[in-house]
Amino acid sequence: MEGLDRERPLSLYIHVPFCSSKCDYCAFYSVPSQAVPDGAIGRYTDLVLGEISALRREWGRPFHTVFIGGGNPAMLGYRRLAEILRAAEADGMPEEATVEINPEDLTDGIMELEGLATRISVGVQSLDPRTLAALGRNSSREAAAAALSRLSGLPFDFNADIITAVPGQAIGGTLRDIEAIASYGPGHISFYCLSFEEGTPLSRRSVPLGDEAEAAFLRAGWKLLSELGYRHYEVSNFAKEGKECLHSKVYWGLGQYVGFGPGAESSVGYGRAVSMRDSEDLGSYLRRPEQTVSFLSADETKEELLLASLRTAYGIDKAEYMRRFGEGFDARYGALISRLDSSWYRDDGSRFALTEEGFLFLDRIILELAMAI
Question: pTM, whole model, 2 decimals?
């Protein structure tokens, strides 16, 4: 694979493009079950297994992390998911192997993944029926509660997603969601505002609450999650001690990862990243998987690092920045940082990171710092 840096770890992402029905807010590439051609799931699985095999021959050692997402990976069935994980782990277990599962699809079959997956991510979103209806979510409070209860007794770490600032929702409702979901003991919670993506059914029938209202939801949720023992380690992610998502930290640190499946992205390299995107749709992928390759300049790679790393509580390691780009972080950005509100960031000399208050102004901060590139 062109641009692959063999001195750095490599992670693997598998995008499963199938779902039972598409949620009204979802902008990820997926194909609802009624539109999936006969034999497509088997063909897709064979292609992914072939791509993993080819990458393994080139890489020759364990992947750092593996993540199977979607779409809805459960549409493959647990037997095929286990087959993909076995292929990805043939050279050794990764430090973390995650599979996304919708609550309504979490059955006893999940035990097919024991010893293969270390982590399950379940898209709960809310336990309130009215909020689920507003989201156009194909699930129910009962299914979500059953899935969380089952996961609490299984040999996997697990993450639960929660969406907030949904039209018609009150702050008290989102706090009840957090308390109820946390009571099942997930080590990790993803908590984020509803996004109104262009072209989705949600965006055609509703509008966002507005920046000030969304900030109020976030501040209240962040406070409660902290009180419940979850550390706010990324804008939308919270974890108990030792339960952070290693795979996502690869993205935020501009690490190396390869993605397989329709629309999946890859990024390899170091000072200058090589970005790739797999065939954009299911039909193209099934005919012949091909990756579109973009060679980023050093300045484009710097911008990618700002976009990713400033989302985290760790921010940017200045020594690592020097190693990657051959220049000082302070020399490049110091003048612009001095103009920012001091409550938005922390700078201890070795790292520059945003505070929770800074997270609320993330886009503005990144835009201002990018002017120095």
Answer: 0.97
CATH topology of domain 10-249: pyruvate-formate lyase- activating enzyme (3.80.30)
In our burial notation (b when 16+ CB lie closer than 10 A, e otherwise), range 7-45 reads: eebbbbbbbbbbbbebbbbbeebbbeeeebeeebbeebb
Phi, psi of 330 (to 5 degrees): -65, -40
Tell me the C-alpha distance between 173 and 67, whole Å: 31
CATH (residue range 298-373): 1.10.10
What is the separation of C-alpha 212 from the centre of its chain, rounded to a whole number of angstroms?
25
Q: Minimal CA–CA distance to 159: which of 127, 192, 190?
A: 190
Question: For 186-238, how does the pLDDT look when each residue is reduced to its tens digit (9 = 90+)?
Answer: 999 999 999 998 888 999 999 999 999 999 999 999 999 999 999 999 999 99
The residue written with tokens 């497509």 in the block is 40
DSSP helix/strand/coil, 221: helix
Determine contact, residues 189/181, Cβ cutoff 8 Å: yes
* Pair 316, 309: CB distance under 8 Å: yes
Residue ranges per structural domain of the chain = 10-249, 298-373
* 48-107 pLDDT per residue, tens: 999 999 999 999 999 999 999 999 999 999 999 999 999 999 999 999 999 999 999 999
pLDDT computed for residue 21 by the predictor: 85
Instruction: Report the C-alpha gap between 125 and 104 in whole angstroms.
Output: 13
Token pair, residue 89, equals: 């782990």
